[in-house]
């Protein structure tokens, strides 16, 4: 089934000028970038986006990292896009990520892990709506 998922290229990656390199991995995997925008997240935006992690010990650091420098928010489209992108990203902790994945190639640590991708189709819809209107997504 053709799906859409939400992606963020995180500050650790934009800082190192890796947007194009990461997009190349995404496109090589057959996912299409159907919306994309560079944005410097506000604290309010980052807190809302990561609300589900509010009680976790790393929440404060996560919000600080995500607002430190610009990110690139994206909508990716393709067959089974949610699961496919999670495969392409690799494990949250880059130490556990498979060869060829984005996190294996580029991530610095579990916090500075270069990319975010939705974990379910339901969350993808919620996350996409936080950053894009339907007319900004061009499939
Ligand atoms: P992401 O997919 O963006 O979702 C939550 C983020 O929290 C995760 O990627 C990590 O970058 C970050 N994080 C920091 N520390 C941890 C941790 N101990 N366990 C899980 N996620 C963590």
UniProtKB/TrEMBL annotation:
This is Nucleoside diphosphate kinase. ATP binds at residues 10, 58, 86, 92, 103, 113. GO terms for biological process: CTP biosynthetic process; GTP biosynthetic process; UTP biosynthetic process. It comes from the Bacteria. The active site is at 116 (pros-phosphohistidine intermediate). HAMAP family: NDP_kinase (MF_00451). Keywords: ATP-binding, Cytoplasm, Kinase, Magnesium, Metal-binding, Nucleotide metabolism, Nucleotide-binding, Phosphoprotein, Transferase. Belongs to the NDK family. Its EC number is 2.7.4.6. It catalyses: a 2'-deoxyribonucleoside 5'-diphosphate + ATP = a 2'-deoxyribonucleoside 5'-triphosphate + ADP; a ribonucleoside 5'-diphosphate + ATP = a ribonucleoside 5'-triphosphate + ADP. It is found in: Cytoplasm. Major role in the synthesis of nucleoside triphosphates other than ATP. The ATP gamma phosphate is transferred to the NDP beta phosphate via a ping-pong mechanism, using a phosphorylated active-site intermediate.
């Amino acid at each position: 089934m053709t799906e859409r998922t939400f992606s963020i290229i995180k500050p650790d990656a934009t800082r190192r000028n890796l947007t194009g390199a990461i997009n190349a991995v995404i496109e090589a995997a057959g996912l299409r970038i159907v919306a994309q925008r560079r944005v410097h997240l506000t604290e309010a935006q980052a807190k809302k986006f990561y609300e589900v992690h509010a009680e976790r010990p790393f929440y404060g650091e996560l919000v600080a990292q995500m607002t430190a420098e610009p990110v690139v928010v994206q909508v990716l489209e393709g067959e089974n896009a949610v699961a496919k992108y999670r495969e392409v990203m690799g494990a949250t902790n880059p130490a556990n990520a498979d060869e060829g994945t984005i996190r294996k190639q580029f991530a610095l640590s579990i916090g500075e892990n270069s990319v975010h991708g939705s974990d379910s189709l339901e969350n993808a819809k919620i996350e996409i709506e936080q950053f894009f209107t339907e007319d900004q997504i061009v499939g």
